[in-house]
Request: fold
Amino acid sequence: MGRQITRHPKIYQGPETEKPRLWHCWVTVGRKPTGKLDRRHIKASTRERVEELLDEAIASMDRRTGSAVAVDTVAGWLRHWLEHIVKPNLGYKTHEGYRTVVERHIIPAIGDRRLSGTRARLEPEHLDQLYKALRGKLAPSYVRKIHHILSKSMADAVLRGRAARNVCDMVNKPRARRVKVKAHSLGVVQEIMQAVVDDDWAARWLIGILYGARQGEALGIHWRGDDEVSRFDLDADPPMLHLVRQVQRRTWEHGCTDPARCVVQLDPARCRVKPCPPRYTHGCENPTGCKKLAHFCPARQQAPGCSRHRGKDGCPPLCRPECTGHARWCPRRTGGGLVEVDLKSEKSVREFPIVTVLVDMLVAHRERQQRLCEQLGIEWDPEGLVFASAQGKPIDPRRDHERWEQLLVRAGVADGPLHGARHDAASVMIATGTDISIVQEVLGHTDIRTTRQYVDIANDLKKQAVERAAAAMFDGALAALLQPSKATMPHQR
Reply:
């Protein structure tokens, strides 16, 4: 049997030659990942303080395995949670979204709080103060997202014995109303389709409006290939579209062996170690008559924010000691840029028969692509991307969105997000009598409740439903029952 955890270690005072003379204690709290015993040296100026630190060290160890916990603060646990729990098990976009929320909003406010113990422990009141401070700066839905991320991380901390309770269960969830993306009416969709016919990228937009393909899914389709890539099969009967992968922009990672040393060798301006200088405004009675800039005004007043970052997000957070970021400047950077990755979920992998009009558009698009390659002296790749640059590389999503905005301008339609075409596809299918379960399969949703959020029932269908109900109610005997009786009418008494 292995060595047990020390429950009552000896507390002793240092020798008289020690300056200052402190109280000491050694405690074994478990084993390190290497298998060696994890011994903690606790020292303080008083015996009472050593006893407090000893209780916290014993309370912080894993209650199931007895191993030591190196992340006893909220900041330490959240960074450990992102790297070892979220990143391997959830999607890349989810991890990056969580990381932004954690580093920008949660850690600066409550990162120094402890998960457990008796001193500086995270309490429900700290969350109330955090949400109150964020409500005036961020949208209610974003504040609720912050609560969701924090609650999920604390639940995992309790499950793994890092914390004794989930503080998020002790506070009310921030109230937020879901903002639904409005789909275009059938008339507006017809106007967009008229503009699509004359566009060089007509096939690209038709894939989004007819099949509800996401932007990354449409940009990752190949002319042909194996089962591991998204592809068209124009020779099949009927022609098919297989959605298997998508194009996604990912941040770069360090390819060197020591990222911290690489950051030190980069341009010092890459790492944010000092806060931004404050922004000043005139404090004199006549700012227009003051010949000096606001920064040099004798009566200057400090304004919120800084002179560089005036957006709603404010100044970016400072870099941590031993920073390992800024991988985009690493000479051996890897894994970033536009890459082809798996789809969001298994349900997103789907296939569709291609309508005739889309087949004609694809053939015309392929001919234009081949002519362009001939003009540039580039060999056309029959297995390359359908929507690609002249060099065969994936189209930048930002450029793709700009093309969509230009299409809406030509159609005379108000500006809208590209993801709105996905809502248009769902609403048009519902308006033409398609069952919502089929719409779920076309869009690739795992939960049908998500599909309902995409569907916007047309007003004409609502009117028809009410008219059918009214006709049923006022037909025959029911209509007679609803007629007022002459004997009970007040003016005939």
